[in-house]
Automatic annotation (TrEMBL):
An example Gene Ontology biological process: proteolysis involved in protein catabolic process
Organism from which the protein derives: Croceicoccus marinus
Protein name per the record: Peptidase M48 Ste24p
GO cellular component: membrane
GO terms for MF: metal ion binding; metalloendopeptidase activity
InterPro entries recorded: LysM, LysM_dom_sf, Mito/Outer_Membr_Metalloprot, Peptidase_M48
Tagged with keyword Repeat: no
């Protein structure tokens, strides 16, 4: 491969020489230091377990290949306690990956590939380019995109109250251009080779992501238009990049994968939702610590975030979140509506706010109509009082006249008992050794899911239905 990676035509992405990126500036360090705590809050905080130190070591080693800084101490590598497949890096030497994405990987080289790709975005100063081309960041500004089925980054729909202050950090994880993605892939491959890793790991981890994206979409009952996994929404089309990454890595030195060390590190790692943040179980969401549950309407699927639960389907989008509560539900609903519009944007307010009771919970709701580039939409806020100081609310968006599609969900909000809360169990990764006589289906039957056991097992281990298991081989299971 040529040393200088040139940008694709039609972009402002400058060429970057692997290992010779411009040094981290003082301004970038300050920017990263200010954004870091916001990102931790947004993505579940740091995951504290033995695997955390392992990820940090690998991340610092691969980041040092970029030339942004030669001292590994200049980088802050964080394993996030998040159940979505995501990874990103921001100026200032801050690198992030979620435990969910790490759980999908097969070896240390793939971990280095993902982190190297993100460092490549920083080395090429891609975030600065995107900020210059940033569109308006008000919620109303993305309503049309939401209605048309395009999820932006961490799904800004419903990121209200204190979360509005985090829009700057959310914009860091918005979608990259195709040329920027390819450049980051190429840089990450160069970093892999420089560090001694197998450079083919970039192609293999992209293939795993593509397979996971397809499986997520199928399990959500969608061809893909509604089920945009987190990493896929911020890093477009990994499937189309697999072949390019494979070709780029041809002939480059590097053989290290460290599969056994990686599997030892991830054994026992939490997988999926953390009960402290609530659990998605089919079309139901249960929060054992806050002691409530609700059900998504038929045809909708749920994605649990750190501060909000997203609800997505063909006919609408929504989120459940909480906000400061002073004991007046009408005022609470009005404030949520007031925060939907960005600075200088027209306010969205319902004609009236109505009161009701849902499964013993005092509730209030209102619907307002707003105009977007994709036509009129109905915005509904439905709030519930759980105590004098605690309330939660749905914000939903549908095409005009279709707001009632979410009525079953509004009516499903309920408290749960202590015994129901205690019954919620976390899932974790269990690395097992294949024994003589073990089969794909037999191992898959041990997966802690009610559906898609075999498909989940195959994707988790980068296997296909024709794979032949060998005694002594190690594979990952997801168990309670």
């Amino acid at each position: 491969m040529a040393l200088a990676l040139s940008a694709c035509a039609g972009t402002t992405t400058p060429p970057v020489v692997p290992g010779q990126a411009g040094s981290i500036t003082q301004q970038e360090r300050q920017y990263g230091a200010e954004a870091h705590p916001q990102l931790l809050a947004q993505f579940g905080g740091e995951y504290n377990a033995p695997v955390t130190n392992y990820v940090e070591r690998v991340g610092k080693n691969i980041a040092a290949q970029s030339g942004l800084a030669t001292a590994r101490e200049a980088y802050t590598v964080t394993l996030l306690n998040s159940p979505v497949n995501n990874a990103f890096a921001i100026p200032g030497g801050y690198i992030y990956t979620t435990r969910q994405l790490v759980g999908l990987m097969d070896n240390e080289a793939e971990l280095a590939a993902v982190l190297g790709h993100e460092v490549g975005h920083v080395a090429a100063r891609h975030s600065q380019t995107r900020q210059q081309a940033q569109q308006q960041n008000s919620l109303l500004g993305v309503l049309g995109a939401v209605v048309s089925g395009v999820l932006l980054g961490n799904s800004q729909l419903g990121q209200l109250g204190q979360e509005l202050a985090m829009q700057g950090s959310q914009l860091l994880t918005l979608k990259y251009s195709r040329s920027q993605e390819h450049q980051a892939d190429d840089l990450g491959i160069a970093y892999l080779s420089s560090a001694g890793y197998d450079p083919m790991a970039m192609a293999s981890v992209l293939e795993s992501l593509a397979q996971q994206n397809t499986l997520d979409a199928r399990l959500a009952g969608s061809s893909g238009s509604n089920a945009v996994p987190e990493w896929a929404s911020t890093h477009p089309d990994p499937a189309s990049r697999v072949r390019d990454a494979f070709q780029e890595a041809q002939g480059m030195p590097g053989t290290v994968t460290n599969r056994d060390a990686f599997l030892t590190a991830v054994d026992g790692m939490l997988y999926g939702d953390d009960p402290k943040q609530g659990i998605v179980d089919g079309n139901s969401f249960v929060h054992p610590e806050l002691r409530f549950a609700f059900d998504a309407p038929n045809g909708f699927f749920l994605v649990n975030g750190t501060q909000a639960v997203s609800i997505s389907g063909q006919s609408g989008r929504g989120q459940l979140a909480g906000a400061p509560y002073s004991g007046d539900l009408n005022n609470y609903v009005g404030k949520v509506f007031g925060q939907l519009a960005g600075e200088g944007q027209p306010q969205v307010q319902p004609a009236q706010i109505q009161r009701t009771t849902v499964n013993g919970l005092p509730a209030a709701y209102g619907t307002a109509r707003a105009n977007t580039g994709n036509g009129a939409v109905d915005v509904t806020v439905f709030a519930y009082e759980f105590s004098n100081s605690q309330a939660f609310h749905f914000v939903t968006i549908t095409q005009a006249g279709q707001a009632g599609v979410f009525n079953p969900m509004y009516q499903s909000m309920r408290r749960i008992s202590a015994s129901q809360a205690a019954a919620v169990k976390p899932r974790k990764i269990d690395v097992v050794t294949v024994k003589s006589g073990d089969t794909l289906q037999g191992l898959a039957n041990r997966m802690a899911y009610d559906n898609g056991k075999l498909e989940r097992f195959l994707v988790l281990n980068s296997l296909d239905t024709n794979a032949v298991l060998q005694p002594g081989q190690k594979v990952k299971l997801v168990v309670y």
